[in-house]
Amino acid sequence: MSLGPLLEVEGLAKHYPVRRGLIIPRAVGTVKAVDGVSFSLARGETLALVGESGCGKSTTARLVLRLIEASAGIVRFEGTDISDMSGAPLRKLRRRMQIVFQDPFASLNPRMTVGDILEEPLIVHNIGDAMARRARVNQLLHLVGLAQYHATRYPHEFSGGQRQRIGIARALAVEPSLVVCDEPVSALDVSIQAQVVNLLKDLQVRLGLSYLFIAHDLAVVKHMADRVAVMYLGRIVEIGPKAALFAAPLHPYTRTLLAAIPRPDPHRRVARTIPGGDMPSPMNPPPGCHFNTRCPFATEKCRTDDPSLREFGGGHQAACHYVETLPPYSAAEGVHAQTPAAAKRLALYAERRARVTETAG
Ligand code: ADP
Question: Minimal CA–CA distance to 205: which of 219, 220, 224?
Fold first, then answer.
């Protein structure tokens, strides 16, 4: 029996009315935080949502988790439409989908011991008696590379990386299948980021998890994702397998994002930034292609006609009128060469994951 995708999202939208006036507030416009987003996530897969701050990544994640209500669209989890789910079924669903937040310090209650923090979701979901819960807490600590004695300590007694391990353990307490990782390493030192990324990858193989991985940093995504969706002003402008997207990006916005990845180059002193000024306000997106105001290849057509996503083979899609005629992408624009060691690690990881998927199927 072949299992369908774990998660399917169709035409998801979240529009916030903008009101002005203290005494009699009146609607003066709409922020289209998410504007017709569609994607799917396979079991055991990692899909990264990337884009600049304010492009709608977190809102998409919160819509998927049903933490906020959508203005339009459908979210299917294991084939069931969860868009209107409420009461006991929604509570049950919450066990299957968890979130790891960006800032572990802000998301962990400073007055609770780590043991209590990890036990709380078990109590909320009525899982096990006191003894079973204590055993589970120990198991979770071990799972994320912490020790049993850490259970009696408070969040402030840990380093940033350790706190994020606690955040991950808390998300895993109720045995979810989907974990939304909302910029889980952005607040950490670069030296610690790799450890947490490796932990997440290891846990994925051991527990068969699917990740919706939100990041603005494409360098992190490169190590973590199977597929990547690039968002701009509330929409997906390019989506595809990671290797294809990094080696041959189709959308000019993806090209600029890739070019902005900092490289360890002693001759390059200037930090790479995204050219073309700031992202326009989602309240007043430019007509036509939303990226036209910053796109080096934009023509008159881009200022009037809104391109939709088109398929270019192997699930690689992009929303640009000129994919076929853009100058060929040069790796020198921004892609790191993959080291043989990284390639070997990735192959090993794919092999282990294939084995896990086989067993699960
Ligand atoms: P990202 O995670 O990519 O940084 P967000 O999803 O947080 O972006 O936000 C997308 C857009 O929606 C931003 O312009 C943000 O200001 C706006 N937005 C988010 N939440 C609200 C809200 N509750 N009310 C009004 N606008 C919001």
Answer: 224
What is the extent of the structural domain holding 147? 7-225
Which amino acid residue places its CA nearest to atom 22 of ligand 1? 16
**Any domain includes 114:** yes
Which residue has 């994702």 as its token pair?
Answer: 225
* Alpha carbons 334 and 1: distance in angstroms, whole number: 42
As beta bridge partners, residue 35 has 13
State the pTM of this model.
0.87
- What's the average model confidence in pLDDT over 117-129? 94
Is the same domain home to 285 and 198? no
Which residue, judged by its Cα, is nearest atom 10 of ligand 1?
56
Query: Could you report the per-residue pLDDT of 302-331, keeping only the tens digit for each?
Result: 999 999 999 999 999 999 999 999 988 876
**CA–CA separation, 113 vs 333, rounded Å?**
48
Which residue's CA is the closest to the ligand 1 atom numbered 5? Answer: 56
Per-residue pLDDT tens over the stretch 174-220: 999 999 999 999 888 888 999 999 999 999 999 999 999 999 888 88
**Distance (Å, rounded) from C-alpha 50 to C-alpha 218?**
7
CATH number at residue 118: 3.40.50.300
50 CB under 6 A from ligand 1? no
Kindly give the number of the ligand 1 atom that is closest to the alpha carbon of 32. 12
Assigned domain for 303 exists: yes
Residues 177 and 113 in one domain: yes
Mutate to test the pocket of ligand 1, among 14, 15, 16 (most ligand atoms within 8 A of CB): 16
pLDDT tens digits, one per residue of 262-318: 665 555 544 445 656 778 888 889 999 999 999 989 999 999 999 999 999 999 999
> Does ligand 1 lie within 6 Å of residue 105's CB atom?
no
d(CA 155, CA 281): 37
CA–CA gap between residue 350 and residue 302 (Å, rounded): 39
Pocket lining: 230 vs ligand 1, CB cutoff 6 Å: no
Q: Is 256 in the pocket of ligand 1 (CB under 6 A)?
A: no
Say what percent of the chain tops pLDDT 90: 68
Please tell me the residue having the least CA distance from ligand 1 atom 14.
54
Q: In this predicted structure, what is the pLDDT of residue 334?
A: 43
